[in-house]
């Protein structure tokens, strides 16, 4: 075990390991690229959906069941299925990562909108605000902390899961995990796993700090 | 992409065996998760100073990617069922711990005081008043943890286990979508059935919450 940790330390800190196409720097860049694109696509789908459901109060049943369904959907199966259907492209990677991220964003956005005090909403309406004004000036600002929590959760899940891009022959930090498993090179596998975990953790902490800084005067 | 129903008909035995093994791994993990998180949650609820650290540790564990958890356990337990179950258990902890603490927090102070006034000791209050009242929130956590575990078992296919997940690797390697589709559908089905059963369990365990029974 001690020897393994030494090897792992050597692997992570060697200069060769960081440079080139298969270097950590490049793989890290790819990993972040997949994760960010997937999260942005997911947000573009899920934010309007969550806001609409929350604003109108219709389709809550759908939102709750969607999240349960999303949790049950096996990402590994989905990526392989889309891969076999569409062939070698980034589509399987993005489809499965987006499917993973959408439920978290929808449910949290919806929960944020529902948590807005009905009296506040009534007061806004009573002051003569139109529906879109109530949404933009009252509901969204009040729901923002929970919306952010949903985005943060989604991003962390996506970063953790983007590992599987390597399974369908793309890059990212998952490359080390799958290449290492194929070559029976435990140090490389562990190196990849540690890097993914570190990226997920750092992003989560950074977003948590950002959230605290943004909503400094407000209860979470 | 066409589904070859013949393949499914020829492999019902294998599909059943994989489903059972799949469910076994997921349910063992949730059960172990409950055994670990219940006492920890009571501790976090009673001792305020421990709450932050305990929930924090669970949160950090949750950010570790599932494939990474299995891989990180390889030096300890190798390519075995133990690795699968341990990895899944770690994942259930954050949901179970948070929900149990939230549930205990939401117990009305009056119920607790009434129990005390009637002479119940702390342990008895916990078992007969606090935990039953916290049950709906705890069960919500158990449902999430169960569905999540059932979905995650397939990740363990990378370390040679993974129940229905084996169908994914198999279909991928042979460029054959039918087993993959069967695996996805069966996983969703298992999750759906397990969730429905847990709803039934909660219904049985909380007779006072049934509609129409309220005074």
Automatic annotation (TrEMBL), chain A:
The primary location reported for this protein is: membrane
Q: Which residue ranges run through the membrane?
A: 34-53, 60-85, 91-113, 159-178, 190-210
Against Pfam families, the record matches this protein to: BPD_transp_1 (PF00528)
User: What membrane topology does this protein have?
Assistant: Multi-pass membrane protein
Q: Which InterPro entries does this entry report, sorted A to Z?
A: ABC_transp_perm/SBD, MetI-like, MetI-like_sf
Domain of life according to the entry: Bacteria
One GO CC annotation? plasma membrane
Q: Does the keyword Cell membrane apply?
A: no
Q: Where in the cell is it found?
A: Cell membrane; Membrane
**ABC transmembrane type-1 domain spans which residues?**
28-207
The processes (GO biological process) annotated in the record are: glycine betaine transport; transmembrane transport
Keywords, sorted A to Z:
Membrane, Transmembrane, Transmembrane helix, Transport
| PANTHER family named in the record | GLYCINE BETAINE/L-PROLINE TRANSPORT SYSTEM PERMEASE PROTEIN PROW (PTHR30177), POSSIBLE OSMOPROTECTANT (GLYCINE BETAINE_CARNITINE_CHOLINE_L-PROLINE) TRANSPORT INTEGRAL MEMBRANE PROTEIN ABC TRANSPORTER PROZ (PTHR30177:SF33)
The record's comment on protein family reads: Belongs to the binding-protein-dependent transport system permease family.
Q: Name it.
A: ABC transporter permease
From TrEMBL, chain B:
TM region positions: 20-42, 54-73, 79-97, 133-160, 180-205
What is the predominant subcellular site recorded for this chain?
membrane
What family classification does the UniProt entry report for this protein?
A: Belongs to the binding-protein-dependent transport system permease family.
What processes does the entry annotate via GO biological process terms? Answer: glycine betaine transport; transmembrane transport
Q: Name one GO cellular component term.
A: plasma membrane
Recorded hits in InterPro entries, A to Z, give: ABC_transp_perm/SBD, MetI-like, MetI-like_sf
In Pfam terms, one family for this protein is BPD_transp_1
Occurrences of domain ABC transmembrane type-1 (ranges): 19-198
User: Which keywords does this Swiss-Prot/TrEMBL entry list?
Assistant: Membrane, Transmembrane, Transmembrane helix, Transport
Species of the source: Streptomyces jumonjinensis
- Going by the entry's taxonomy, the superkingdom of the source organism is recorded as Bacteria
This one is known as ABC transporter permease
Query: Transmembrane helix: present as a keyword of the record?
Result: yes
Q: What subcellular compartments does it reside in?
A: Cell membrane; Membrane
What membrane topology does the UniProt entry give?
Multi-pass membrane protein
Q: Tell me the classification of the organism that encodes this protein.
A: Bacteria, Bacillati, Actinomycetota, Actinomycetes, Kitasatosporales
């Amino acid at each position: 075990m001690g020897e393994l940790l030494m090897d792992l330390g050597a692997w992570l800190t060697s200069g060769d390991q960081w440079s080139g196409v298969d270097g950590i720097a490049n793989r890290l860049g790819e990993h972040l690229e997949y994760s960010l694109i997937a999260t942005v696509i997911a947000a573009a789908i899920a934010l309007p959906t969550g806001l609409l459901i929350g604003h109108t109060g219709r389709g809550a049943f759908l939102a709750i069941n969607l999240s349960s369904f999303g949790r049950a959907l096996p990402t590994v199966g989905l990526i392989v299925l889309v891969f076999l259907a569409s062939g070698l492209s980034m589509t399987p990677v993005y489809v499965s990562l987006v499917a993973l991220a959408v439920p978290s964003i929808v449910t949290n956005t919806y929960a944020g909108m529902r948590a807005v005090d009905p009296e506040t909403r009534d007061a806004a309406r009573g002051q003569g605000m139109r529906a879109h004004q109530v949404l933009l000036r009252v509901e969204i600002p009040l729901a923002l902390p929970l919306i952010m929590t949903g985005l943060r959760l989604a991003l962390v899940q996506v970063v953790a899961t983007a590992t599987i891009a390597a399974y369908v022959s793309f890059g990212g930090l998952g490359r080390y995990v799958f290449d290492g498993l194929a070559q029976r090179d435990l140090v490389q596998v562990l190196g990849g796993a540690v890097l993914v975990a570190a990226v997920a953790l750092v992003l989560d902490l950074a977003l948590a700090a950002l959230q605290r800084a943004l909503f400094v005067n407000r209860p979470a | 992409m066409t589904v070859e129903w013949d393949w499914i008909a020829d492999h019902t035995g294998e599909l059943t065996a994989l489903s059972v093994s799949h469910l076994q791994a997921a349910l063992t993990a949730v059960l172990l998760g409950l055994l670990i998180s219940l006492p920890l949650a009571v501790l976090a609820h009673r001792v305020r100073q421990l709450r932050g650290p305990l929930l924090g540790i669970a949160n950090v564990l949750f950010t570790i990617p599932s494939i990474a958890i299995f891989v990180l356990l390889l030096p300890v337990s190798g390519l075995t069922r133990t690795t699968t179950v341990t990895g899944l258990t770690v994942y259930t902890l954050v949901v179970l711990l948070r929900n149990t603490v939230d549930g205990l927090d939401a117990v009305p102070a009056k119920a607790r005081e009434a129990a005390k006034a009637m002479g119940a000791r702390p342990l008895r209050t916990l078992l007969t008043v606090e935990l039953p009242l916290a049950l709906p929130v705890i069960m919500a956590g158990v449902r999430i943890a169960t569905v999540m575990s059932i979905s995650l078992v397939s990740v363990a296919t990378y370390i040679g286990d993974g129940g229905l997940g084996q169908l994914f690797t198999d279909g991928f390697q042979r460029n054959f979508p039918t087993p993959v589709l069967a695996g996805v559908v069966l996983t969703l089905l298992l999750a759906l059935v397990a969730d429905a059963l847990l709803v039934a369990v909660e219904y049985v365990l909380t007779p006072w919450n049934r509609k129409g029974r309220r005074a």
